[in-house]
Design goal:
- The protein is an alpha+beta fold and about 170 residues long.
- It has a single domain, classed as Gcn5-related N-acetyltransferase (GNAT) (Aminopeptidase, 3-Layer(aba) Sandwich).
- It is built from five helices and seven strands, in the order βαααβββαβαββ.
- It has a seven-stranded mixed beta sheet, sandwiched between helices.
- Helix 1 crosses helix 3.
Length: about 170
């Protein structure tokens, strides 16, 4: 990112974005490995077809949509500085999951997470789904506080390794 002011905007991932999606996901796993249900090693080993399918599914937008946070001040293509995916849960048709959420440290605390969560909630509503859910590691207090700021609340008790949080879409 350049040294000037950050201008954040949300964009959806489309099919041609597979390589950029992979690079952002690997950056997220490198910087915050404790926050995801995957590992850097696992995602490094994934075939190019995995990333192409993820990007294509986002573009189609029937079952999932992936959003990126773009620093538009960084030039024509902008730097990708955040990521979140909403995916409809087939077994629970009234819910969509928020997955793969990550915001670059340089833009944390300035509303970046809210932009991504709001985009996921809007897509969820557009698909006729009323509730957005997520799982957060109990030990990740920073993420839990960020999700609470974005309108999520604990669903159930706070025992266990993973906590379920919900938000109306």
């Amino acid at each position: 990112m350049a040294g000037g002011p950050v201008v954040l905007q949300v964009e959806q991932v489309i099919g041609v974005d597979a390589a950029r999606l992979r690079a952002l996901r690997l950056s997220a796993l490198s910087g915050d490995p404790e926050g995801f249900g995957s590992t850097l090693e696992r995602d490094l080993a994934r075939a190019p077809s995995f990333w192409a399918e993820w990007a294509r599914a986002s573009e189609v937008g029937e079952e999932q949509r992936t959003f990126v946070l773009v620093d538009a001040a960084a030039g024509q293509d902008g730097d990708w500085v955040g990521l979140a995916m909403a995916r409809i849960v087939p077994e629970r048709p009234g819910e969509a999951e928020l997955l793969s959420m990550w915001v670059a440290p340089a833009v944390r605390g300035g509303g970046a997470a809210e932009l991504l969560c709001d985009a996921c909630a809007a897509w969820t509503r557009s698909r006729g789904v009323a509730t957005l859910v997520l799982a957060v590691y109990a030990a990740n207090g920073r993420a839990r506080r960020a999700y609470e700021k974005c309108g999520f609340s604990l669903d159930g008790d706070d025992a266990g390794e993973l906590l379920r949080m919900v938000r109306a879409a």
